Amino acid sequence: MASTDRALALVDCNSFYASCERVFRPDLRRTPIVVLSNNDGCVIARSAEAKALGIKMGVPYFQIKNDLRRHGIVPFSSNYALYGDMSERVMTVIESLVPAVEVYSIDEAFADLSGVPDVEVLGRRIRAEVLRKTGIPVGVGIANTKTLAKLANHSAKRWQRQTGGVVDLLDSERRDKVLRVTDVSDVWGIGRRMTEHLNGIGIRSAWDLAQADAWTLRKQFSVVVEKTARELRGTLCLDLEEAAPPKQEICCSRMFGMRLHELGPIREAVATYAARASEKLRAQQSMCKRVRVSIRTGMFNPDEPKFAKGVVCELPYPTDDTRYITRAALAGLELVYRPGFAFSKAEVLLMDLRQRGEYTDDLFAATQPAASERVMGVLDEINAKWGRGTLRPGRVPTAPGWGMRREMMSQSYTTRLDQLWEVGCR
Length: 426
Prior knowledge:
There is one protein chain. With about 425 residues, the chain is α+β, with helices and mostly antiparallel strands. It has helices spanning about 15-25, 50, 60-70, 80-95, 120-135, 145-160, 160-165, 170-180, 190-200, 205-210, 215-220, 225-235, 265-285, 320-335, 370-385; strands at about 10-15, 35, 45, 75, 100-105, 110, 140-145, 165-170, 250-260, 285-295, 310-320, 345-355. Strand 5 and strand 6 (about 110) form a beta hairpin. Helix 4 (about 80-95) packs antiparallel against helix 5 (about 120-135) and helix 11 packs antiparallel against helix 12 (about 225-235). The longest helix has 21 residues, at about 265-285.
């Protein structure tokens, strides 16, 4: 199919984390909201009202706590269980309306609209159905390349009142008009440093980038910038990926809710992270051969001694068994731990990942026992049915004292029976 026959849509949730909080708090429909990172550290999401009040992304919470109170801005601790479940619901609605979908991130999906007689009508239907069935507002950008669809989506949010949240750039005249009024920094994949380089050679708008010589861009910058320019012209370079490729590494890392000095609670944290990383490993049908475990102190407090160290541990054979991965991670922890420091973070990284059957060891090399696969299968099946953590390794605590600080977290309305949304009558 020629690129001119292709129609792609980017469906992007508006202020996704803040919108998820509002679904179950209709009293906050017009109230500014911010969502905070792990341990209530800094702002990672803002509603439109909070943005209008000048709240910046990434600003530490303790610095703006009084400003939030003064402006009536409601802060929430991050509730990833809620956001993940709401994301699945949004993607399910989108998948029911289009032939093919690529889930790009927790709040974005590319959809194939090729062959649809009136793509804008379908775009408005997607927007309406997602809002009706999930309560999440979305913007829809339509074009014949991914980069242009991203740009169309940006325009849909930029001029939401005029567009109704849907912009179609399949028409070349409309596309060129948007390119001319869009800064090159707003183009997908063009970061701050690249913007500075492009500005230095006179490329200031998306239109300028689209008109630049593609081969010169490739030689001067990279093939990524070249493809971006070609896509802005309407030449398809990035096709839809319905199945995301397996990750080459899987990491589970968290800041502790408090400084940890003793080895015992750090062991609990590493075991917890190893179990979670193993779940992700099995979810993508992979096995790993190496585990890296690392710990570090806080790096920004001048009054605290600094220490950071990691070690790579070899597994006896490729495995996805939580027990063996945890054992290796804990053995590595014993090697890197040093008493006398206040540790703030641990990380478990699964490396050398392959799909089953891809490892080419010799004939006599040890392999994962079939019993491991059966045990892990039962573990995942129980947790899928009754909730994560229902069945877990004995080293993983239920309510650890070192867990993340999330003092302003909303309820898990959609994933826990004891926290279902309650509607009272007056």
